[in-house]
Amino acid sequence: MESREAELIKGEGVTLTAAQQRARRNRNVAIGICLFAMVAIFYAATVVKFGPRLMDRPIISLGTK
Amino acid sequence: MAMTDTSHHSDISLAEPSHYIALMKPRVMRLVVFTAVAGLIAAPGPLNPVLSLIAIICITIGAGASGALNMWYDADIDAVMSRTTNRPVPQGLVTSDQALNFGLIMSVLSVVTLGLLVNWVAGGLLAFTIFFYAVIYTMWLKRSTPQNIVIGGAAGAFPPMIGWACVTGTIGLEGLALFAIIFIWTPPHFWALALWKMRDYDDAHVPMMPNVAGEKSTRNQMLAYSTLLAPLSVAPWVLGFAGPAFGVLSALLGAAFLWLTFKVWQDAGRSEKLLHEKKLFAFSIFYLFALFGLLIVDAIALRTTGSYLLAGLVGA
């Protein structure tokens, strides 16, 4: 897979230098971490805001309201 | 289309994550975190630890985003001033387009997250802070008026107010008082630095008060601001969101600030090494950390023991 990708890139006439590849990889890792952090933040906030209230209601409503 | 050389493409980015972090002005962010935490914890109301942490992260990222927008717009003057010449954009590590995009994306994400997860008063204030710093300060006033520091100080004064709004959902007199302390503190703090830096480098690409209005006028204005700052320091106690221990210590801090500024004014630059100015600058940093640190300590005391520090002594 990797070599095919490399060939495709070569076919475009672009070969990244080692430094460019390393920078791109580090940027990708950083973006990945940020995306994960975003998801974790919204997940945690949802649990905090709604969690206890979700537990506070009868599981089956018997229409006694 | 011409065939390109297969080996070297120097237009492909070499930017590392650390360069993007540098765009966010980490040193400024530390002060933002500190003052925002103070506003958050001093505000009356329940504090959820998770939401508080999220609020602080959002405020910090928002402040960083405005820093990135500032570095995008100011790349031309950053390149010629020794203090700023090694910033990522003038160094060519990050292109100005990348800095702009990064700043915009982080602005939107931080404001929307704060608004959705905390409240929209805080989110709106954060949006206004970014707009104020990036547009009103950086694009407009910084290069056109020697009052730039005064105006720019307002941007730095918003974080504790946003912290307060995160808990209470309002701005309030208390939030405004925290804002006013940093706002009034900024000019004497920064001009103390400007007074001695101006002599070292005659490098004024930006109108600074000592270069434009002269040293005498600058010192007069510093004294005026410090005179205002002294009573403002005590405001958290007067307004009832800090205790008597804070009241006494903040009065001492404010008085010391005023005294050191008075020495700067009195000496009027006669001592060649400008020791008074350097002393005032160093003390001004201590002042801000001490004042907001005391506010945090007092607020923690209230939240854990039910009363402010030493409140029992005065029977409050």
What's the total number of strands of chain A? Answer: 0
State the CATH topology of the largest domain in chain B.
Answer: Tetracycline Repressor, domain 2
Spatial separation of the terminal alpha carbons of chain B: 82 Å
Q: Return the domain count of chain A.
A: 1
Mean pLDDT of chain B: 89
- By secondary-structure content and strand pairing, the structural class of chain A works out as mainly alpha
CATH superfamily of the largest domain in chain B: UbiA prenyltransferase
End-to-end Cα distance of chain A, whole Å, is 61 Å
Series of H and E elements of chain B: HHHHHHHHHHHHH
Number of helices of chain A: 2
Rg from Cα of chain A: 24 Å
Task: Characterise the protein shown here.
The complex is a heterodimer of chains A (65) and B (316). Chain A has 65 residues and is an all-alpha fold. Chain A has one domain (2-55). Helix content of chain A is 74%, strand content 0%. Chain A contains two helices and no strands. The longest helix of chain A has 38 residues, at 18-55. Chain B has 316 residues and is mainly α. Chain B has two domains: 16-170, Tetracycline Repressor, domain 2; 175-311, Four Helix Bundle (Hemerythrin (Met), subunit A) (Up-down Bundle), CATH 1.20.120. Chain B is 72% helix and 0% strand. Chain B contains 13 helices and no strands. Chain B has helices at 17-23, 26-42, 49-73, 75-78, 96-117, 120-141, 148-168, 172-200, 209-212, 215-233, 235-238, 244-267, 275-305. In chain B, α3 (49-73) packs antiparallel against α7 (148-168), α5 (96-117) runs antiparallel to α6 and α8 runs antiparallel to α13 (275-305). Chain B is flat. The model of chain B is unreliable at 1-7 (pLDDT under 50). The interface between A and B is medium-sized, with 21 and 22 residues.
